[in-house]
Amino acid sequence: MKLNSLVASATFAALSFAAAGGAQSSPAAPAAGQPDPVAQLRREIDDLRADYAQRIAALEARLAALAEAPPPAPTPPPVAPVETPAPAPVTVLSGAGGKNYLNLSLDGLFAAGASTAPDVPALEPGGHDPAQRGFTVQNLEMVLEGAVDPYFRAQANVILQISPEGESVVELEEAYATTTSLPHGFQLKVGQFFTEFGRLNPSHPHAWDFVDQPLVNGRFFGGDGLRSVGARISWLLPTNFYSEAYLTLQNSQGETLSSFRSVPGESLFGREIVEREVKSVSDLLLAPRYAASFDLSDTQTLLVGASAALGPNGTGENGKTRIYGVDGFWKWKAANAFKGFPFVKVQGELMYRDLYADASPDGAQPSASFDDWGGYLQINWGFKPGYVAGLRFDSVGGDSGGLEGGDPTDNPDTDALRRRIRLSPVLTWFPTEYSKLRLQYNFDRGDAFVDDEHSLWLQLEFLLGAHSAHKF
Amino acid sequence: MRSGKLLPSLLFALAATAAPSGAAADLKVVATTSEYAALATAVGGDRVAVTTIAKPTEDPHFVDARPSQIVAMNRADVLIEGGAELEIGWLPPLLDGARNPRILVGAPGHVVASEGIQLLDIPAAADRSQGDTHLAGNPHFMLDPENARIVATHLARVFTALDPAGKSAFAANLEAFDSALTARMQEWSAALAPFRGRQIVTYHPTWRYFCRRFGLEANTFLEPKPGIPPSPPHLAAVIAKMAAENIRVLLLEPYQPRKTAESVAAHNGARVVDVCQFPGALPGTETYLDLIDTNVKRIAGALAGGN
Prior knowledge:
The structure holds 2 protein chains of 2 kinds.
Chain A: H1 2-25, H2 37-68, E1 103-115, H3 120-123, E2 134-147, E3 152-162, E4 168-179, E5 186-194, H4 215-221, E6 227-236, E7 242-250, E8 267-268, E9 271-272, E10 285-295, E11 300-312, E12 320-338, E13 341-357, E14 368-384, E15 387-399, E16 420-432, E17 435-446, E18 453-465
Antiparallel strand pairs in A: 1-2, 1-18, 2-3, 3-4, 4-5, 5-6, 6-7, 7-10, 8-9, 10-11, 11-12, 12-13, 13-14, 14-15, 15-16, 16-17, 17-18
Chain B: H1 2-17, E1 27-31, H2 34-44, E2 48-52, H3 67-74, E3 78-81, H4 91-98, E4 110-112, H5 145-162, H6 167-192, E5 199-202, H7 208-214, E6 217-221, H8 232-244, E7 249-252, H9 258-268, E8 271-274, H10 288-305
Parallel strand pairs in B: 1-2, 1-3, 3-4, 5-6, 5-7, 7-8
Helix pairs in contact in B: 2-5, 3-4, 5-6, 6-10, 8-9
């Protein structure tokens, strides 16, 4: 190190200078008119020798003393000067934003590809899935996040998209505050947010392991996920393992609540959605969830959960929807992981929907109940730093419930119940944690499709700004 | 609603079965990485119970925010983090999930170890085209033992504030650590003194503080930029530099790619030396002093043999 050697040589120079000075000022000042210069020199040399012998003896004694009893008080390290504690120029605390009051990031997610199906949205029910042959702006997500004050943190996710028609769309995906300091393990979340149901629903598209969302999420929660404005309380239980209970209460109307009150004028299982008033708390969406996690070993972790979403639906005054789900996530990560690799993670969710449709006001359609289900199972293997290979299996289906005629294929309005499967191998390359390139193939087979469909999608993501830390 | 009644009673039952675990030490300490845990143990002695989030053998930049850590942090009295953005990719969700006012940013129990330490490599601008740079500076400052001295003092102050009854114990432990460190510093400095000014190659800029303290030069990295994987042209340049400047030692940490390091070293007959920045990652590195001691001996041995 340049600085160190500079200091050392300076110290050395100073020491030599001091030593030289000491030698000069030591005895034997020559007297004027001394007759024998040789004798004088000899005497001077003898004096010097005696002086040095004395000094050496003193030094040796000191060294011996040092060797026997090291000094009790800490001495500065001999080589380099001790660092004087000085405030660091910038100290970035975790969870704090450094020099700004908020963390800002922009995440761009784009897809390109082709499908044998001309009507891509019929194949891809997610609002952030590839929407057409050619290019799709899946999601341009702006995240603003930070500490409000000592009691709240807040986050807003604003989404920009360009529809297949070329129109720019702005969407307030999430905007909420969470408490930081409630006692007894409680936390309150208030605002517009994804309902904490299952594993995938509350996560943002850039955190997904695949180009598109699972079929069951599209079928039960619509294109944009189950989310609404409301409040959620969660409780970290005082157990020795991770165990958390959530209770969410949200509005049940809107386009992101397609299984519930949805949007008047839209349809649900072939029935027109009607306007319904909110008369009591039971007209809101109630979503309880419980999650637990166990470290199976030093390198393996399991997270399991069970969720429900209960609320009215827009088919009529008595329409009621209940969705139940279980989810599991297991991950192995090597003990000497580099950049988080290698790892294997397995994730699956299973959901069941029980929907009671009221009779239509004109009496043309009798009341009926529909049962359907769906799920996915996916495995991802991070086989070397930056590279992940994955496979997902999707399946959805249902029975006709109380429909006249029994078989859902008899009723064109109940395409929403027909069986579909999808198999999706995927390969992702992360040049860094701020960008990714992903290639995914989808094999789609469905009772409503004439032929099997094949699609190939390429996805590019870039992330500008604050690094968004991911939950487990 | 039936489910409305079922859920609370289920939760109550679960909470009731979870008995709080045994007689706990006075202070529960969670450390992000194991060198802070080692210092907390040295200073806190048997008055602290310490858990570590990151495994000593894994890359500290990429740690999973496992839910079990939320539980540990929920009950912690003290959280120790480095603070120079090393933990920024995984600590915030844990802190958020832990909902523990005792360890929130700014609370007395939230220790930012880099406070009071002069950091190196502070980038002139926030620019990720320069790799995964940390705005606060290079976060691997704990490999300089003089910085560990500052952090140990910091910990003793925090422990004393939170557990005043332990004041004399913490002071005595700190004194013992401090004088042991001073004695070892003399040994380490002497062991590395013959190699003053010698260059070594490292994978990542982890060893900048260590080398500055002991008069070595660690300015050549296998990564072309921090966090960016080595490219063949960059490795070729490193190989050429090692040959031209007679650099014979390449340091490798447990999680870094061994093949890359070995192939570079093989070109020049250089040595790959296994070292670590976290106690517990290599045998004989359980305490902080043993960690530095092991690293010093390995590096001195390689420098002596490699030329």
